[in-house]
């Protein structure tokens, strides 16, 4: 004898209900660790840019490298922060999401500010090639 099959009962394991959160200790550790590593990467990138214009020759006037390629590296750090924030959001790691969002915003601020400064320097060097920091002397 074949019995009729009832539709499945309400399944509370899926849907828009409360989602499980990640372990708080691991969440805080991952958030702080990623924040430290990404901050270190940004400091190294911008430090390399600073050192490109540093010269011990007192007779010379060194000009720093253009900032554009360094801003690309900072953008790479920002993209990694966004990816880490998305992965952390899917895992329910709230602290990591917050720290990675802060790092992504910081990367955006550095990129916008650096692009504005380098654009201003490029315009200055087009108008007056002999200006300080333009490579033409000054």
Please give the number of β-strands. 0
Largest beta-sheet details: none
Shape: elongated
Oligomer: single chain
Give the CA-CA distance, first to last residue. Answer: 100 Å
The fraction of residues in strands falls at under 5%
**Would you tell me the overall average pLDDT?**
86
Radius of gyration: 25 Å
| Tally of alpha and pi helices | 3
The helicity comes to: 55-70%
Low-confidence stretches: none
Order of helices and strands: HHH
How does the helix and strand content classify structurally? Answer: mainly alpha
Describe this structure in words.
The longest helix is centred in the last third of the chain and has 34 residues, at 94-127. The chain starts with 23 loop residues before the first helix and ends in an 11-residue tail after the last helix. It has helices spanning 24-52, 68-91, 94-127. The protein has 138 residues and is mainly alpha-helical. The chain is built from 3 helices and no strands.
Summed up:
By secondary structure, the chain is mainly α.
SSE topology:
Blueprint: H1 24-52, H2 68-91, H3 94-127
Helix pairs in contact: 1-2, 1-3, 2-3
Keywords:
elongated; 63% helix; 3 helices; mainly alpha; 138 residues
